[in-house]
Specification:
alpha/beta, disordered C terminus, EC 1.11.1.20, Prostamide/prostaglandin F synthase, prostaglandin biosynthesis, lipid biosynthesis
Length: about 200
């Protein structure tokens, strides 16, 4: 886990997905702990599946006073993402990708994204998404990676700073709960067998 400067990162502005209002990132952890899920892009099939997985924790997070927030790197695909009901938390957009950069979420190059997208973790997650009826598209910024940041109330400390190593990397639900010191009833989706229909999404 890299060292995160919460003061610097907290000053970054996000646009609220519902209203378009700009808010400082630090306002999201000012009054409660927060789980910040940084998506690669809203149209990504694997990201949509990860959003549904993390959303399984929403009732337990809410019961423990923890906010669940999704952040995307662009508005492109936001409407379809919201209409699909993939995520149960609040949604924001980091149009300038400043938080992504400050948190060390890498950007792929046109050459490096192909092998990353064909990796086993991506194929497995895409297979889970397909098995769950979740589709995606290739619209928007295909080169941005994501991750997760979990911050204690008031920004006292970073509980988790997770950086995706490949587009299919995600933090297990039990690790999120453990970092927050809560228990949850949610069960992670079963890992399906990959097939050729989903290996490149």
């Amino acid at each position: 886990m890299a060292n995160v400067d919460l003061v610097k990162v907290g000053e970054n502005l996000l646009k609220r997905g519902e209203t378009g209002e700009s808010v400082a990132l630090q306002s999201l952890w000012q009054d409660q702990p927060v789980v910040l899920f940084f998506l690669r892009r809203f149209g990504c099939q694997v990201c949509r599946w990860m959003a549904t997985e993390i959303s399984k924790l929403e009732p337990d997070l809410k019961a423990n006073g923890v906010a669940l927030v999704g952040v995307g790197p662009e508005e492109f695909g936001l409407k379809e993402f919201k209409e699909g009901g993939f995520f149960k938390g609040s949604i924001y957009v980091d149009e300038h990708k400043k938080s992504y950069k400050d948190l060390g979420f890498k950007r792929y190059t046109a050459l490096s994204v192909v092998p990353a997208a064909l990796g086993k973790k991506v194929r497995d997650a895409a297979s889970k998404a397909s098995a769950g009826g979740i589709q995606g598209n290739f619209s928007g910024d295909l080169l941005q990676s994501g991750g997760m940041l979990i911050v204690s109330k008031g920004g006292e400390k970073v509980l988790v700073h997770f950086i995706q190593d490949s587009p299919g990397d995600h933090l297990p639900l039990e690790d999120i709960c453990k970092a927050l010191g809560i228990s949850a009833n949610a069960k992670a989706g079963q890992r399906p067998v990959c097939n050729d229909d989903v290996c490149t999404r």
